[in-house]
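INFO batch 0412 | record 1 of 1 | parsing
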Amino acid sequence: MNPNYPQCYCNALLNFSGQNKYKEAQDKVKGIEVLQRLKQLHDSDVEEFEIMRAGVESEKAQIIDTYIKHPELKIATDYHFGELEKFSGELHIIGLSPQNDSHIFACIEKSSLDKVVFYSYGEPPKKLPLTKTYEFADIKQLWKSLDANQPQYNCGRKYSDSDEAKKFFKLFNTLSLDPVTKEEIEKEANSIHEYMAMPLCKEAMNLIKVQTTPKSEEKLMKQFRMVSRIALREGIYPSTFYLILIDNFSKLS
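INFO prediction complete | emitting tokens
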């Protein structure tokens, strides 16, 4: 277990991923199908339905009654894994993780697909959990072909090159655990417009406010990691985000 990322070992995540999620979803689909059959029975033979219902425990009977009155309501989400397993032809995948979505790749394995194209951002994974023919593609090239690239900004912010300023950049790298050069930090900071930066800064400040005062270096670094995750979620260097936070601190105080 990596102590720097305890959230990755959370039971709430592990119990609802991969094969566990597949089994859970399939069980829910069976429940949906049972209710649909009961609705059909109710519509075609009320007497037979009432006999069946009389032998059902109270809590389940309430669920059945609710569905009969409101068939538009669902007891669970149908993930349509069964439909995925019937796919054929060529499938293009965007936004799946080979590590966390193994159940989806298992469905693809059961399908009649001839080929899979897996889009990745940056360096693609070494391999996919598939025996079917597959290839990797660059998502950035797809965005470009769709004219969907993120707007590029140059906010023109100037940063000091003094020894004191260099100490701050060194501190940002220490806190982020992902060191990058001062030039890279400045370039990325200038590419992030204020309308994007301010909501993220407010989110970070609100996160800090609800935390108790850290009483050890370990707890302090844990709080900084929480802030870093906001940056990583948005595809921003944590070091850059710390610079933007300092830039906007007076506006947020």
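INFO post-check: The mean pLDDT is 86.
INFO record closed
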